[in-house]
Amino acid sequence: MNFGNVKNKKIRVVYITGESYIDHSYTIIKELRKHLNLEVYFIFKALNAEVKRFLSVFNAFPVTRKRYRNPLSLLDELALILRLKRLRADCIWFNTLNVYQIFLVKIFLKNYLIMLHDAEIHPSTSDKHGRLSTKLLIKFHRERICTASYSQSEVFRKLTGTTPKVLPLPVIDYYKDLSSDSNSPDERKGRKLKFFFFGTIERYKGIDHLIDASVILEHHKDKFEINIYGKFRYSDTELFQRIKGISVINLQDEFIDYKQVSGLFRDNDVLILPYRQVTQCGPLLISYSFNVPVICSDHPGFREYVDNGKSGLIYGNSSGELAEVMEMIINEPDKIKEMKDYIKTVIHKKFSMESLASMYIKVLTDL
Asked: 89, 101, 127, 217: which could form a disulfide with 14 (CB 3.0–4.6 Å)?
């Protein structure tokens, strides 16, 4: 079915995205181009191999950005917005807006939509530009905002009194498409169970809960290991010392190259997401693409995507309760295979971009 037909003509949508959203943008564009006349503008700081590949795959228009503190960046942003205005598209869809764009879009564009990924700013974040742009977005563009999950929509409604449209993020197949490996059979038998954490490590992501849980499970140390992949964004000497003293934990404190991601997810068994707060979670959606189940804290942002006991396990937000759920998996490892099968047959059908496409297109065509 071609959802994008209006009077037998595909609507023209211009999609503006950037490096921070490259994985889910890839997934969204790949499917929507089957239904819409979709043009892509990609904003980046440096032309690396990953950016080159994205530009080539989608024949995207390249937009090099300067640092926001550079006053000349305002001229670049103005040139971009005026170029977009001249396109006369049915809809111009921004994945986000920086501070300059917030004002320029308000002045020059009419048919636009803004995807808000974090309606609730993460606790302890040090990104001052991100905080300011989110506040200004809500102040000046609330009627043009859609959120990336229903839980974020509810947060937005409580903040503003306005209920935005929702474009739920899909299962991310970017890293799976990059890999030439086929889905390997379950070879877990005979080796330790591998729990893992993946992604940039910030305080709100609760890595200390995982450390505490590992200590509680010390008596099972011959049966499991915990692999932590991701760069710490804060300094905690005491926490680092604790990690070094725990034999079951392997820490890779560095940025994970995009080409390594598929190997990490295929080599581990269960993803741990001990977040204290969540709006939308990229690692969860990557995990589903590899049929890897999750253990996550109890927040609406996770409950929206996780069927408790089926695609993952939800614990009650304390280190002790996380340890209990991990111990259950250690004692009942066959549960992993059950959850993998459920993800493959149910979750993919529910949250694949193919399944969500009609919802996206309705939002775009009703603008």
From this structure: 89
